Amino acid sequence: MCTTCGCGTDHVHIDGVSQLVSRTTAAPLSGEERFFPMPASTPAVGAMAVHAHGTPASRIVQVERDLLAANDSWARRNRDRFRALGTLCLNLVSSPGSGKTTLLVRTVTGLAARRPVGVIEGDQQTSNDADRIRATGVPAVQVNTGKGCHLEAPMIARALDGLALTAGGVLFIENVGNLVCPALFDLGEAHKVAILSVTEGEDKPLKYPDMFRAADVVLVNKIDLLPYLDFDVELCEANARRVNPSLEIMRVSAKSGDGFDEWLGWIESRARPAASPARGSEART
Amino acid sequence: MHEMSLAESVVQIVEDTARRNGGTRVSSVTLEIGALAGVEIEALRFCFDAASRGTMAAGAMLMIDRPEGAAWCMPCGETVRVTSLGEACPRCGSYQLQVTGGDELRVREIELH
User: Fold this and answer.
1) Structure ipTM
2) CA of A41 to nearest chain B CA: how many angstroms apart?
3) Are B39 and B84 in contact (CB under 8 A)?
């Protein structure tokens, strides 16, 4: 396990069921046991021996393979699946405590009357967040990453089996609360949406630039608290645009609902028309 | 940050390549980790040691090339060198930059026995 941040990927739990994800076992894992194989459609590795090296018994083999190739192949498959289903997938990322789950509860409540909505919740432990979503009547699948500090695309592929997605639907993935690691992992989403609350620092986009570069949208949350804080929203937004000039930024309050017309309108403008009168998709059990 | 996942990917790619090429042991692994790739090199080295234990890559020397960061500056209309994200163009001071290099995360080659 990494002692820097505690991340490690021995196994994850999807709705409480343990899934082995070890990629480091010496013995080759069978297809059933191995959670992170390359998808069948992944192009073969272009490895080839090129020249003899200093040691007679050794040779250099060119590899030229991206470290994220396996994850990205799964992400492409997830994206194809969303496209075929007509589902808009949004990956919500933020620090712990930014109000992500509260924002999500208000968002799915606002959307569920108009179109099918589903949620995949990522946390290291507990099903608290999925429980909060399910209490609104919207189906949710909880992925527990154990020591893992981010979601990866194969976990989403697995979790999707527990959600019935339909045309015009919106799937929200609430990533593990962490403004660093989830930046690198494509899950197949249409957009990463970063949430930053006004109780954090204005310079957060400069401190964690990878995430603000990976995101297309930033929601500045908890703006109802602005009268009580010294937070400079303009400065925060300028910092975010320093890292990513094309960011769309919206100011919202998940508590008061301020800014939600714009946020829900943004989602509506990107989702496909709902296939049938609005009903939450049913979770398969 | 996510260095353990990346180290596990390195080991998986290395073992996969070694097997396809009929090797039994890997004595060195060369990576390309760009300056803007968001990777803590010391953490990656630590994680590689842990992740490679008991595999064909155990004990392999890890060599890491660090390609420099580069970005396209829209006002200047040319490629400029950058050392971190959120930094201004060193020529004109603009933040209208599009990263074009330095985000590599790749296994380049291995030495196989």
Assistant:
1) 0.89
2) 16
3) no
Which among B8, B24, B19, B55 has a CA at the least distance from the CA of A47? B19
Contact residues, A window 23-42, toward B, CB-based 8 Å cutoff? 23-24, 26, 36
Nearest CB to B40 within list A4, A149, A242 = A4
Percent of chain A with pLDDT over 90: 71
Contact: A4, B107; criterion CB under 8 Å: no
**Residue A258: pLDDT over 60:** yes
Q: What band does A276 get if pLDDT is binned at 50, 70 and 90?
A: low
B109/A209 touch (CB, cutoff 8 Å), yes or no: no
Q: Which residues contact A83 (CB under 8 A, 6 or more apart)?
A: none
Residue B107 to residue A2, Cβ atoms within 8 A: no
Is there a domain that residue A249 lies in?
yes
Smallest Cβ–Cβ distance between A181 and the set B2, B51, B54 belongs to B2
Q: Which CATH class is domain B3-68+102-112?
A: alpha beta
Which neighbouring-strand residues pair with A123? A144
Domain ranges of chain B: 3-68+102-112
Question: Is B12 strand, coil or helix?
Answer: helix
